[in-house]
Amino acid sequence: MSILVTGGTGALGFHILSNLSGTNHDLFSFSNEQPQPWQKVEGVEYLTGDLLNYKEVYEVVQKVQPTHVYHLASQSSVGLSYKKPYETLNINLLGTQTLLEAVQQVTPKAKVMLLSSSEIYGRDDRQLTYLHKEEDRPNPLTPYATSKACMELLGNQFHNAHGLHVVAVRPFHFTGPHHSRRFAIPSITYQLVKIKYYGAEPVIYSGSLDVSRDVVDVRDVARGMIQVLNTAESGEIYNICSGKSYTLRELVDMLVDIAGISVDFRFDPGYERSNDIPLLIGDPTKINNLGWKPMVSIEDSLTDLFNEMVVRRRTELKMGMGQDLRL
C-alpha cells in the first residue's frame, strides 16, 4: 500500500503517519513546507508543493501512486477565515478539486478521505444538549465552515460522477500533543509553559472561556480516521466525537493544575470570535458501530500536550528560533 497524507506536518497528519509508521506501507506527506523536527515521523518521505497548482499535485500523485489518501491540507483556522475568506475558500474547496481530479486521473481506485469539521453544523434551535447527527442539515456560520460544507459536496460529486471512493469525517474539537498554537487550548498551554519555565508574566490571555465543546484526543481522531478510510463505504460521512462536552474554562483549569502554577486570566478581544457557537456536541453512534471509541482521557490528553509543548519550546530555542515561532 502507498499512503499519501496532504497536510502531513500538522497534528492530525503527524499522528496518522505515526500510527502507520513501522508497517510495510510506503508513506508520503505533501505540504507547502518542510517539517520541523517535532513534526517528522521516521520512514515518511516529505514532499512539498502548492495544492492549488494542478501540475505539481498531479506529479505528486503520479510519483506516489497512492492506494489511500488522507486529505488534511486546508486553511483550518475559523478566526483567520473571517480575515481571509477568499483564501479559505480557495484552499479548502479548489485545493480539494485539484487533488480529487489528479487522483481520479492517475489512481482512480484509490480510497480518499476528506477532513471536514463539526463547525458545519453551526447553531441549532433545538435543546442545548442536542447531539448532532451526520444526517443533520449543514448550517455554516463562518467562511471556514462554508468551505468545509462545500468540500463535502465536491467529494460527493466525485463519488457520484466518477465512482471515486470518497469518505468524509467531521471531527469535533480535538487537542493533544503536536497541536498547533493557532488554536485555543495549545495557545493557552504555550502561555503556561512560558510562565512556568521562562519567567513570563503569570497572566493568561484568552477569549471567552464559557463555550462548550465535545473534545477528543488528537490520537483518537487519527485512529478513527484510519478506521473509517479502511472500512467505510464510499460516500459515507462520520462524526468523530465523544458525545459529551467540556467548557473551555474546565479544560483551562485542568491545564493550570497540570502546570502546577497560579495564574490570573484576562480577556483579550483579539481571541474573540464573532458568531461563536456556545455548545457543540456530536452523536458518536455511527463511528461507534465501526468499533471506534475514544481511548485517551482528556486529562491524559492535556498532560501529554503540556509535556510535548515543553519539549517543542526547548527545541525551538536550540534552533535559535526565539520569538519568531513556527505555528
Roughly what percent helix? 40-55%
Chain oligomer state: single chain
What Rg is obtained from the alpha carbons, in whole angstroms?
Answer: 19 Å
Q: Main β-sheet, in a few words?
A: 7 strands, parallel
- How far from one another are the termini? 31 Å
Strand order of the largest sheet: 3-2-1-4-5-6-11
Order of helices and strands: EHEEHEHHEHEEHEEEHEEHEEHH
Number of helices: 10
Strand proportion: 15-25%
**Overall form:** globular
Q: Any low-confidence stretches, pLDDT <50, length ≥5?
A: none
What is the arithmetic mean of pLDDT? Answer: 93
The tally of strands reads 14
Based on helices, strands and strand pairing, what is the structural class? Answer: alpha/beta
